[in-house]
Every structure is written in structure tokens, then in C-alpha cells.
Design a protein that fits this description.
The protein is α/β, with parallel strands linked by helices and 649 residues long. It has three domains: 146 residues; 119 residues, Rossmann fold, CATH 3.40.50.11830; 246 residues, Tetratricopeptide repeat domain (Serine Threonine Protein Phosphatase 5, Tetratricopeptide repeat). The chain contains 26 helices and eight strands. Helix 11 links the parallel strand 4 and strand 5. Helix 1 packs across helix 3 and helix 21 runs antiparallel to helix 22. The chain is globular.
Length: 649
Amino acid sequence: MSKSQEPVAVKTRKALAIMGYLSRMGGMNAPRETLADLLWSSKDRTKAMQSLRQALRQLKTAEQEAGFDVVLSSSGHVQLDQNVFASDYMQIMALLEKGRADDFREAEELWRGDFLTGYEDVDSEFSDWLRVERERVRSEVTGAALRHLNQVSIEDGGVRAEAGGRFLLKVDPALEAAHRVLIRLYLNLGQKERAEQQLKACEREMRLLLDAVPDQETRNLLRQDEPASQPENVFRSPGESSVSSNLLPNSEDVVLLPEISIISSSLLKKGLNDAVHLREEIVSGLSSFRSFDLYESEYFGDADMPKPMRVEGHELGSYLLRFRHDERSGKIVVQFEDRAIGQIVFNEIVDLRLWDGLTPAASQIVSRVYGHVIGKLRNPANNNIFARWCQADALMWDFTPQSDDKALRLLDEIERTNRSFSKIYSARASIIMKRELHFPLHETNSADGMSNLLSLAEKSIMLDPWQAMNQRIYGWALILSNLPEDARRAFQNAGRLSSSDPANLMSVAEGLAFSGDVSEALATAERAFSLFAFVPRVFYEYLANIYFAAEDYEAAISQIERGAGVGVSGLTTRVAALLCAGRETEALQTLQRFSEQMPNGLSDAPEVGDNPEKWRKKINFFQDEKVRQQFDKGAAMVQRFLFEGLGSI
């Protein structure tokens, strides 16, 4: 639009697509190479860059006609001027931030369809990005609107709730949460016939657009015995934030967690600071897992300190964690008791002089507590919701496609009754990414795929941004969406949220390396290894990728040889590191050994022959261009091996 609000034409859609893409980037900024690859993917880099320059000239011509500049370009980047650029989406989000009835109505008028409608065919790569980004935009918009509809109020005659519900249905006619808002509103207003009509509309739209039916909870809203004045109730799991997008009618299916009571004897005189600090480190570490209900007791004198005894606790377990400072020895006693059976699980006497600081000592005690409590819940005989989650989590750490399939079935089981349990969605996203990274040739029947990855990760963040796992998986999803700076921030958040969990830190470190922040990745990995009592072999593969990003190929080779197995991802890292180190003969021998370990050969693998170039691009997570090119040397050799056979090399 010009200064006089007249539309200004741009010669090609790709020129406008550049602005659409930049509007969704952090800082509204992107490298020229990224734009060229995204919009002219079928051309070689030189011709693609030339086409990009022509498109930028078209935008400059339009700016001259409009009377102001929006696009700022340099030799390396293209950026939108955030002080000048405006869009309908930005205006809609500003209106939803206020969330009044008039704001919802104005936002409804502004919503003219999905993000960049009509741009699906400008380029195949752009289409892939656009598919994910549309879901992201829709998720952001519906989430912003639903925050104001947490309680369906009729104080204003239901005007705001109805306007909000109508806006949501303009965005997505099959959005069940929006239909629920209106059904509850009409029930609260005593308009049962309108509520019934809304339910029929919900059934119709979900059948037409999703080939699905409303949940039983939605149908139950119209039960005769349900009070019409019941306020909208949003499901909330212990420790999870309230998320209105679920809009469940009640919260009777709360996810219970194991209980741990924290008790300290008098931590007095010499050594007080160390004892208190160790205690706080341990409590903080346990809290960061978001897997326990922690109860803080007052400080007791030794005479008043509770004695070991059995108590009646719920099926997930009740525990007591005691701290006592031994004044004579200067040591700190940490005792962990299972109250359900009156058993002392462990009694740790901590001499900090034998440890390299408080954090490693605290981390290993946290790991012992976590391992004992969660280990008991991983028994498949325990069908409590949180126990089912623990079983799914354990399966995901097996790193086999079969275990992932079992984990997905458990996640489906949990979701049927507890859709606001945020880790359901980050776990699904994790499995999708694991298949891409470790099992790209494995056949899958899952409905979830790469196109749904970012929306799953964002849903987990919307439900609970304080879960380290959610932030970490969000970071990985952003990596795969070519958003390295946003990914870096998500990984840093995950590291801060659970800084005493070495497994979390190792995943964060690998993510930072892929994002391009190698120095922080190395420091984080070093911190993680200092906390491990035992290092799982899979983390040596993570470390190998970090060293590869640091261009220390000999160290990468050394670490990958200690890794977990013969997955395609680890194979590619090993081959790439060997090639970059000038050890091509060993790279060929590595592929030979891999071929011998495949019992049925590679020719029957489901995805072999589908799209070798797509596979090669998909396996390369490194965002730094130089590192990416170095890794591609190995990926090219592995590609020929997987898709053409060993004789092609």
C-alpha cells in the first residue's frame, strides 16, 4: 500500500513471497542464500542469486511508487524495516492482545484466509516451508484468541465470548475448542436449542474437513444434568500452565505425580552454607524435571525430626528426602526414604572435598532419586497416566523404530483422557525427528510427519513453556524449519530450565552445535559430562557432531567410534569426519562394515530410490554454511551407498 493507501502492484509473486517469508523470520531478516534456495530451488546457486537480485529490484520499483522504503538489503542479508513494515497479521495479533468484542469482530474482518494463500506453487521448497508456517500462524492466532476465552462470561450478555468464538471459526471452521466456547455460552445463557445447533455445526464441519467426530466431552456438554451456569473450565495438569485451546469441561482427570517431602534438620554452625546450598541444588534439580509433587517442610531440630515410618500414599509413590549437616565431620547426610514401605532407599554421606563443586554432587543425588522413583513407574503393569508417560519416555530412549511405535501407542492412550499433558506433543515431535535423523529408511504408519512437526512442538510450548523437554524439542523443530537463531534461544531456555540433568544438557549442546554456536555447545557438553555417573553411548554420537561442528574431525571420529551403534546418522557423521580428515580408505571400509551388518541388505528398504537428493538434504542439520558443506561430503558418499549400492562408490 502507498502512503495514500492505494495498492501498489509488484511484477512477480516471488518478489512478494520474499516479503512474506521475511515477515516470519526473527528480526525480519534472512541471508540472501536462504532466500535464493527457498524460491529458486531448481536453479544452481549462481542463477538463483541472479533471480533474487531481479526480484529485489522489482520490490525497489514498487517502493518508489509507494513513496517509502520497506526492504533493506545488504551484500549478505535482506531485511524488512520493522519501523515501517505492517501487515494484516500484525494488526490481527494486536487486536487479539486486547481481546474485546469489537477487537474480535475487526480481526474477523481482517482474516481473509490462510497465510499467503495462492503462493503454494511458487517453488516446491517454499511450498514445504509455507505448509509448516501456515500451521504456525494459525496456532499463534487461535492461541492468542483462546487466552481471552478461558472463562465463558455472560456478564456482558456473552457478547465477547460469541465474537471470539465466531472469529475462531472464521480461522478454522472445524476447531472443536471454538465450538465448545459457543456451546457453553449458549447453555449459560439458557439457550439450549442454539447450543444443540452449534453441536450439529461442529459435527458437520469436523466430518467434512477432518473426517472426524467431536470428542465425547463435547457431546457431554449438552447432558440434561449439567448445570447451565457452570463456568468454562480449562484442564490443568499439576505444574502445567492453563491452556484454553483444550477447553475440557472438567478437570477430574488430573495427572498425579509422585510425592517427595523435603525435610532438613538444623543446618548450623560450621559448614552451614555448603549444606544449605547443596540442599537447594538438589531441590532445584528435582523441581526442574517437573515429574514430582515436592512439599517443603520447615527446618526441624534434631529432636523434632520425623522418624522413618510407613504412610498411605497414592499409587505413584510417597517419599521423604532428609538433609542433615554433621557438625563434627563437616559432611552432609542426604537420606531418601520410601514412605509406602518404610524403607531407606539410600543414605548418602557427602564430603564436598571429594567433589569438583556442589553441582556434580547434587546432580548425581538427583539422578539417584529420579532413577528410583521413575524406574518403579516404568513397570508396564502400572497403568496410571504418569506411569504410562514414564513407560513411553523409556521406550523413546531405546533408539529403535519398534520402541518408538510402542511409545506412540502409549502417547495416544494418554491423549484420550489427558490432552493438556504437554509432553505428549513434544514426545511425538521427538519421535518424528528421530526417524528423520536416525531411521530415515524405516517405514512408518504414523499420521504425524515433518509437515506437522513445528505445530506439535509449538503446541507443547503453548501448554507448558517451563518444561525443558518442550523447549528442547521446540529448538530441534526450529532447526528443521531453518530458523537457527530462534532454535538457539529455545536450546538456551532448555539448558537454563534443567541445568542439572546431563541428558538434557547433551541434547541442548548438540542443538547449539547444529545452530552454529559451537563454543557454547562445547562448554555445555563439558558440563554435561561432568555430571554423568554413567555416560550412555548415544551421547558420544552427540559429542561427535559437536566436534564436527568445531571442525575437530579427529575428535569427532574418536567419539563416534564410542557411539551407540550403526544408525544412518552416526554412519554419516563418521564417514564425513573421515573424509574431512583425509582418511577416505577408512570411510569406504566403514561403509563396507555397515553393509555387512544389514541382514537383508539395503535394496528392500522402503524409502530407497524415492528421492536421494531430498534424503541428503534432510540428514544435514548443520546451519553454518561451511560446516554444512563439509558434512555434505560424507552425506554424498552415504547417499550413493544407500541408494545405488557399495559398488557405486
